Amino acid sequence: MKYNIVGRKVNLRDNFKERVYKKLGKFEKIFSEEAEAVVTVTLEKNRQTVEVTIRDSGMLLRAESTALEMNDALDAVVDILGGQIRKNKTKLSKRFKPDSINRYFAEEAVGYEDDYSLDEEDYKVVRTKTFSVKPLSVEEAILQMNMIAHEFFMFRNAKSGEINVVYKRKDGTYGLLEPEA
């Protein structure tokens, strides 16, 4: 796995980088050698946010945590990533190295059963909704999303003509999803 460690508004020490390699190294047996892990550490008002994004074979795994210490935030992110893998292990084993997920769990004999059910649920669509997608500006789409009190809103971008999604982020700001050409 390739690593890219970035510090925003903070200088990262070598011992933190080595801790990242050690903590995320346990996931290397699951992912291919072409996998890329991007670790971003941000300092905001004496709080450290660690975000880890792992890309491999068209799959994206992402987690983020904020704590007073970056090491604590990193530990929480690794736990979240492990939980995501545990929760979806059957479906993920079809996408990654054969038997790598089962070997990972055999070696990681840690009791996460309390937080994540190992009985994996099927992805079941319980409702399908159709609606017309009107051309809107991003600002109009955000207004429309707020008017219907949703967390996201799909629309046709009036500038590009592409289908886009606006969404409300945890910090109260907004995000825009655009398809890549």
Description:
The protein has helices at 14-25, 70-87, 89-93, 100-107, 138-147; strands at residues 2-8, 36-44, 47-56, 59-67, 135-136, 152-157, 163-168, 174-177. The chain has 2 domains: 2-107, Ribosome hibernation promotion factor-like (Double Stranded RNA Binding Domain, 2-Layer Sandwich), CATH 3.30.160; 135-177, 2-Layer Sandwich (SHC Adaptor Protein). It is an alpha/beta fold. The chain is built from 5 helices and 8 strands. The two termini are 26 Å apart. The radius of gyration is 19 Å and the shape is globular. 17% of the residues are buried. α1 (14-25) packs parallel to α2. A hairpin with a 5-residue loop joins β6 (152-157) and β7. Mean pLDDT is 83; it is low at 110-118. The strands form 2 sheets. A 4-stranded mixed β-sheet has the order 1-2-3-4, covered by helices on one side.
Poorly predicted spans: 110-118
CATH class of the largest domain: Alpha Beta
Total number of strands: 8
Question: Major sheet, described briefly?
Answer: 4 strands, mixed
What share of the residues does DSSP label as strand, in percent?
Answer: 25-35%
Give the neighbour order of strands across the main sheet.
Answer: 1-2-3-4
What string, H for helix and E for strand, traces the elements in order?
EHEEEHHHEHEEE
Number of helices: 5
CATH architecture tag of the largest domain: 2-Layer Sandwich
The chain-level mean pLDDT equals: 83
Q: State the helical fraction.
A: 25-40%
Shape: globular
- CATH H-level homologous superfamily name of the largest domain: Ribosome hibernation promotion factor-like
Give the termini separation.
26 Å
How many domains would you count in the coordinates? 2
